[in-house]
Input
Amino acid sequence: MDFDLSKPQQMLQQSAREFLSRECNHEKVRELMGTADGFDSKLWQGIADQGWTGIVVPEEFGGLGLGVVELACVAEEMGRAVYTGPYLSTVWASAVIARAANEGPKAQYLEKICSGELIATVAQLETAASWNAEDATLKAEKKGTSYVLNGRKEQVTDAGIAQVMVVLAKTGEDLSLLVVPTNAEGVKITATPGLDSTRKLYAVDFDNVTIPETELLESGYRAKEAFDQASAVATVALCAEMVGGMQWVLDESVEYVKTRQQFGKPVGIYQAVQHKCADMLLFTESSRSAVYFAAWALNENDGGARLAVSAAKVYCSDAARETGNRGIQVHGGIGFTWEHNMHLYYKRFKSSEIMFGDSTYHREEIAKQIVDENEG
Output
């Protein structure tokens, strides 16, 4: 593998940085945080016009047909900007749809997602808050040519602005993946508070929601396979977001300690402060290496891709939190205030730490994978 981005990938990342610096600065982020849904239609259409909503969608369905590395390039810049909107949710949903066998929903939804016409999300978590797909309990009972859904999903990102949800459910003992319109009869969406106001969360109740069987994406073991593959792509995108945020915290902190004076000297001359900056550099660069290796492994269908994704999430979950801690510490009192932007990144780090499973969850996944390989 190459240990640097290719020229086109570098150009993509640079264009993402320029666009987000212009269209999604911190003032814009704070404005969106204060709204009920955190959504700006003009910003969203601008992102779609860049082609980012279809980065990993095949060209035949209106996407760019690129890979996970390119997705990570864009996601890193979104993390740097603390982008507020339904990008990650929609990418996750489109990845699930693209990997399903049912061609009907692919043709129906993917092109609209790529054009920015459709916003999508994924409803997975329930009361138990397990990121294991097999732990889903929401019922999707087959009745004639329809499925009837009953149950509740928790922490569904961007459900308040999405037009469709990919819902993970159980039909008997089998997993099912269904596309459910958010305005379907019997669907109730309730906003729920969260630490990170840049990522809106909702609870979704399903009360005898009837969905035609044509909206079934996949069932049985193939549903789990498609869902796990798509979740791995979304996990890498989330980790890349964390890397971008860590880079901002590092850059901001280094600049601050060069100019902040104490007793007539910049605080950056003190070794204790330098050590914290060095820690942040180590966390950021090590996380970046883990993320882009995982992205490359997914692109190449490498046998160790699942292990690489879990390793990246383990490291990034812990590293982002610790980078946020040190960033606030080197800023002193100002780092704790609402006026400073450091808290935007710290809260994003904390929410990202548990999304798609925290470091403890993925350490257990790594252990399971190693045991399975040894037994195999």
In short: The radius of gyration is 21 Å. The beta strands are 120-123, 139-143, 146-157, 164-171, 174-181, 187-192, 201-212, 216-219, 261-262, 265-266. The chain has eleven helices and ten strands.
